Amino acid sequence: MTQDMQRTPSQVCVFRRHEFLARADERKDCVLRIEEGWAAQYRLLPDGRRQIITLFLPGDYCEPQWLLQGRATLPIVALTRVRARLLPHRSIQARAPHEEDSMTRVLDAVLALLRNREKWIFNLGRMTATERLCNLICELHSRMAARNCVAVQDRYCMPLTQYDLADIVGISPVHVNRVLQNLRSDGLLELRNRWMQVLDMVQLKRLGEIMPGQGEHVPRAA
Amino acid sequence: MTQDMQRTPSQVCVFRRHEFLARADERKDCVLRIEEGWAAQYRLLPDGRRQIITLFLPGDYCEPQWLLQGRATLPIVALTRVRARLLPHRSIQARAPHEEDSMTRVLDAVLALLRNREKWIFNLGRMTATERLCNLICELHSRMAARNCVAVQDRYCMPLTQYDLADIVGISPVHVNRVLQNLRSDGLLELRNRWMQVLDMVQLKRLGEIMPGQGEHVPRAA
DNA sequence: CGTATCGTTGATCTAGTTCAATAAGCGTGG
DNA sequence: CCACGCTTATTGAACTAGATCAACGATACG
Q1: Which of A148, B15, B17, B185 could form a disulfide with B82 if both were Cys (CB 3.0 to 4.6 A apart)?
Q2: What H or E segment, with its residue span, contains residue B183?
Q3: Which keywords label this protein (chains A, B) (predicted)?
C-alpha cells in the first residue's frame, strides 16, 4: 500500500482491517487524514505484551508530526476498514494558515497529541482499571461527538475489541471484561456488537475524568 | 518569579527547590533552557496521587511547545535549585535554522518529547516495576551523558528522592525502595546521597530497555 | 455450517499496595 | 557544637487489585 500512496498523492486510499498504515521507521512524505474507520499505533514486546500508544479516529490527522520528522516511529495498524486522505507535506505547507489541512492545523494536532499523552501517562501511572476505562470511554465519546459521529442518546460505533481496550488502558483483557460488566450492571453504559451507548455520562465522568486538582502546594507522595 | 521573567527577557533566572517554573494554564512567551538543576512537570489528584509527566534535565528545553501554544498546561516545579535561561519566542524565531536555540531546534525538542512519551506510555502500561525503574535509570544515564554530566565510572548526580522516582514510574515509594535494594544487591548499581553509579549497564539495559520487537504480525493480546 | 475470533466466567495466584514503625540524614537556630 | 524538627530511607506484616489459567459460550464470516 506504500506503493499506492506514492502513485496517488493527494488521493484517498483504503486499508483493510489489520493492514498497516505505517511501519516502524518508514519514511513519510504525507500526513494522513482519517476519513473513516479506526487505527492504532502500538508497541509490541517479543513476549507478546502490546501497548496501544495512540488511537486514530475519523477526522484525526494520522501522525501530524510526520510533517516535521518525515518518518514514522511505530507501526500503525487499521483496527477496522480505514479510508484516509493523503496530504503531501508540500500541499500542507502551501495552504494559508486558516485553511483546512494547513500547517497551523497540523501543528495544532501535534500539540493536541502531546496533551493527550500527558493525560494517558497520568492515567496509566496513577488511575485504577475502572477509572482508566471510564476515562477512555468519555474520551472516545467526546472525540466522536466532535466529529459528529455520535447518534441520538449518546450511541456511537466503538469497534474496539476487549483485547484492544486492554492494550489501551494497560490491563488484561479478562479484567476489561469484568470492569465492563460492573459498568453495565451499574447502568452506566450499554455495549454490544461494536455499539456503545452511554447511559449515565455524569457518573461516568465522575469515575473517570481527572479532576483539575492542580495542587499549589509542594508536591509529595500522599 | 513570573514578574522577574517579564522584567529580564533573554536573561537567566534561578528557582529554589520547590519553586514553580510554571503553573497550570499560565501564559508563556518564553521557552526555558535549563542550565542547571532538575525540574518536573506533574499532575496531582485531590486524593494525593501524583504522576510526574516530564522530567527536565540540564540542557533540556523546558516546554518547547510553549513556542507554539503560548501557554503551559501543567505545573512545573523545581526538584533542585534550578538555573534557566529565558528564550523569548521572538528571539527563537529570529535565529537561523542551524543556530543554537533556533525554531528548528525547539521543534526538534517537541518531537523528542512526543517520542519520549510514546516510550513512557508503553512503560507504564506494560512494564513491571523493575523494568520501569531500570528503564528510567538508563534513560537518565543517557540523557545526562548527552549533556556531559556523567563523571568517570558512570557516576552521575541523581537528585530524585524515592518519592519522585515512584511518581515517575507509577508505583509506590515503598516498592521503589525494594526494587532498588534488589538492583543494588545484584550489583547493578550503587545509589547514595543523590549520586547514582551504574555498575552493570549491560544488564540494566537488558532488564529495562524496550526490545525493538516491532511485530509484523497482526497485533493481538498474547 | 465450520472455524477462527471474541466474550464470559470461575478459581487461583502474585506483584505491588498499604499501614506502621523505626532509622538515618540534614539543615537551622540557639 | 549540639539539639531539634523535618525529610528521606528502610523494613516487616497484612492485604488487594488485577493477572493468569482454563474452559466454555456466543458471534461472525467466508
Answers
A1: B15
A2: helix B173-185
A3: DNA-binding, Transcription, Transcription regulation
Q: Is B50 helix (H, G, I), strand (E, B) or coil?
A: strand
Quickly list H helices, A95-148.
103-126, 129-146
Res. B147: pLDDT tops 70: yes
Q: In this complex, is the C-beta atom of B67 within 8 Å of any C-beta atom belonging to chain A? A: no
E strand or H helix at A176, and its extent? helix A173-185
Kindly tell me if the per-residue pLDDT of B221 is higher than 60.
Answer: no
Domains in chain A: boundaries: 2-120, 128-208
List the one residue out of B21, B69, B167, B170 whose CA is nearest residue A115. Answer: B69
> What is the per-residue pLDDT across B23-57, written as a single tens digit (0 to 9) for each?
999 999 999 999 999 999 999 999 999 999 999 99
What's the mean pLDDT in A116-125?
98
Under 8 Å between Cβ of B189 and B142: no
- Give the number of A-B residue pairs with CB atoms closer than 8 Å: 147
Spatial distance between the Cα atoms of B13 and B81, rounded to a whole number of angstroms: 11
- What's domain A2-120's superfamily in CATH? Jelly Rolls (2.60.120.10)
Residue B166 has φ and ψ, to the nearest 5°, of: -60, -40
- Residue written as grid cell 528522592: B161
**CA proximity to B53, closest of A109, A108, A76, A214:** A214
A128-208 adopts what CATH topology?
Answer: Arc Repressor Mutant, subunit A (1.10.10)
> Cα–Cα distance between A39 and A46 in angstroms, integer?
22
Residue A150, classed as helix, strand or coil, is coil
- A32 SS3 class: strand
User: Which bases of strand C have any atom within 7 Å of the beta carbon of a protein residue?
Assistant: 5-11, 15-20, 25-26
All protein residues with a CB under 7 A from any atom of strand D: A 128-130, 170-172, 174-175, 193, 220; B 161-163, 173-174, 177-178, 180-181
What pLDDT, in 10s, does the model give residues A153-188? 889 999 999 999 999 999 999 999 999 999 999 999
Which distant-in-sequence residues (6+ apart) come within 8 Å of A208 by Cβ?
A: A127, A130, A131, A132, A133, A134, A135, A136, A137, A138
Rounded to whole angstroms, how far apart are CA atoms A73 and A68? Answer: 12
